[in-house]
Amino acid sequence: MRYNPIARTALAAVLATGLAGAAAAQTAAPETDTIAISIGVDLPFLPHIVAKEKGWFADAGFKNVEFKTFMSGNMAGEGLLADEIQLWTPGNLPPISMAHNGIPVVVLGTNAVSHGLEKIVVRNDAGVEKPEDLYNVTLGLLTSSTSGALLGNVAKAYGLDMARIKTVNLAPPEAMAAMSNNEIQGIIFWEPWPYRATTEMDGKVVHTGTVSHFAGNDGAEVPVSNNRTVWVASQDWVRNNPNATQALVDVMVKAQNYVKDPANQDEVLAMFSKFQDQPLEMNAALIDNYTFDPTIDEAYVEDMNAVAEFLEATNRISGRMDPLSFTYSAPLAAVDPALVKVEGEWKP
Q1: Which of 43, 133, 178, 316 could form a disulfide with 183 if both were Cys (CB 3.0 to 4.6 A apart)?
Q2: Is 9 a residue whose pLDDT tops 90?
Q3: What value does the mean pLDDT of the chain take?
């Protein structure tokens, strides 16, 4: 693992000269006034929706902002490369996999740290009380998502044979229907699907990304997740649109700061719930699963490396890359140098 902390002298230089550059970047018109952004139904997209509803994208020069949804993360990634969207906010597994397979994506910062977000939920009648009981059920998940990594880490933590755990590759809505019909007995997904599985059907959480709820160690801290959602763009778009890239990061950091302020929580949850046509009480119950923080630091590097280690161990990537090699930190540093503790190595 290689870290590149910014030296005090370099930081002083940024403070002395970079702030003028940041001000110029903030006032320079973006190369395009149109931007498309991929969003989903869950709370990681709270900053995106708040930024649009508050008019902050428009204020930054993006007069035409379109939100797009995709049936899967793979399709969203393909949309990014086809320039159908300019900002993608997936869990960190897909862009790590793409970067290792030579696909030109770049991470601009963290959207939300959410180690406890993903959960294993099973039917109460499935008889899952201890880790070994997972051998007796079938679990629905998206194998290309961070949920696969969580299951692998659970197996490792409890000494389970991953090959004996039966899984089916399903998108969340299909998995929910299959669990309801007892075609599968559990799911591994991010919120709000676990919440719905426990409130709308007879499901129970047996493990989160951070805590066990198996009978033998219920409530014990067992960290098995390195999930964080990240801001991802195509390398070509960043190269061709430096002002728009800076404006986009400016807006997203502004929105993050707004949504994580406790004084604004009621307002932003109401805004998000209305936009998504979701129960306010559900989102209020789930908001604590997320820490909205764009910082690029050693914790970011550790999470990215841990996911890469899982992908390598499951033969999905080879030739491990330093995550900083596909991380572009300059726009974030222009917003606030304190947000970049470890400098990204990718340059346009």
Answers
A1: 178
A2: no
A3: 91
